[in-house]
Amino acid sequence: MPLGLLAYRSAAMLAGAAAPLIRGFGGPESTWRSALTGASEDLAGAAGRVWIHAASMGEVVAARAWVTALLGAGQRGPLLLTTRTQRGLARARRDLGDRVIARIAPLDLPQLVRSFLASAAPRRLDIVETEIWPHMILESRRRSVAVVFVSAAVSDRTRRRLLRWGLAGRALFGDGVWVLAQSERHAERFRSLGVPPSRIAVTGDLKAEPPQAGAPRDPAERPTVVFGSLRPGEEEVAVGLARSLARPDARALVVAPRHKDGTERVLAALGASAVPISIRREEDRGREDFSAWVARLKSAPPPRVGVLATLGELPLAYESAGIAIVGGTFAPYGGHNVLEPAARGCAVVVGPYSDAVQEGVEALARERAILEVKDAAEASEAVRALLDTPETMRRMGEGAVRAAEVASRSAALSLEALGRFGLAP
């Protein structure tokens, strides 16, 4: 066993011995306490014997498509779905209901993972995207549970880190592990980590969902511009966009921070620039639906700026938008999903940091459906130029839908690959 993996396992064994004591410090519903819990009676209700793990809310979106595909292909339900955040858990329970047993995933401590596996008794573990936890993988393999990375992606930085720390090779990724990769680039990275080439298939990105039925397809007729998945350090991009949309005929700007704590940073940045703001919080959902909020926002005097502080409404925001600026690309995060707004017919704008979503950027570039800019000033200029040329916006939106429709075959391709690997429902 590589020294890095041996050191990881040794440290985790020591931490696991302290887990019962540490668990007592968390509240009954705390993420921390839930993560320090292994076996529980509710796990036996996951009769489908498939454990799907999705790190947080973004991965739950992909997991939702995967659950739908599996059950549609005849997989028995309910399935077991775990996540590591309360927001992801709430999204899974709301979107998937009784199709899944949803709970917080156990920490990657061998005692907890063994207890969890013994209670859930899955036949297959489907890990969505990039969650590489050694004990989750090793303990599953030890129990002959097939481990499948679904819609699998790993950044080059993560790949280098895993190799440097000795958390790679056949000891971790050998027999019993399969990869359904988003692209050939991601497939090659998994090969370099030690996954046998014969166990890898390229099946695309599960997050590239098709547009909602009835969503308006012409971006030139939509009322908003959306800055989605904003990350720390990108607040000034939002301020610049708000200023550029201050003219009377401009669209409303909807800013959607990636994480809950980002809302206050955005509000502070916009407030310091004296920009009036309409905030949509979770408690507002019962009083006003999203389209009514957008209509009210659009009727306000310019600049019309809304901050989205709700759970799971970003897809609705993209459906209202002619232009989507994708966050995580104006600071060194690598970017967030560009195919989600593309599937909804948005012209897409990204900043200089898009290495984590390069395949999606390239797919949109082939359809001339994306603008890559250097900074906040260029982002504002690009948005103004698109608003002044509706035909260009319309052409980009049509190209974006074409690119996303190709990628949206991922669920079908993934099911086909499971069949080839002898793992089908």
UniProtKB/TrEMBL annotation:
Span of the signal peptide: 1-17
Entry's localization field: Cell membrane
Domain of life: Bacteria
Site (Transition state stabilizer) location in chain: E129, K207
Catalytic activity: lipid IVA (E. coli) + CMP-3-deoxy-beta-D-manno-octulosonate = alpha-Kdo-(2->6)-lipid IVA (E. coli) + CMP + H(+)
Protein family membership: Belongs to the glycosyltransferase group 1 family.
Domain 3-deoxy-D-manno-octulosonic-acid transferase N-terminal: 47-208
Name of the protein described by the UniProt record: 3-deoxy-D-manno-octulosonic acid transferase
UniProt GO molecular function: Kdo transferase activity
Protein EC: 2.4.99.12
InterPro entries reported in the protein's UniProt record: Glycos_transf_N, Glycos_transf_N_sf, Kdotransferase
GO cellular component: plasma membrane
Active-site residue numbers: E59 (proton acceptor)
General function of this protein: Involved in lipopolysaccharide (LPS) biosynthesis. Catalyzes the transfer of 3-deoxy-D-manno-octulosonate (Kdo) residue(s) from CMP-Kdo to lipid IV(A), the tetraacyldisaccharide-1,4'-bisphosphate precursor of lipid A.
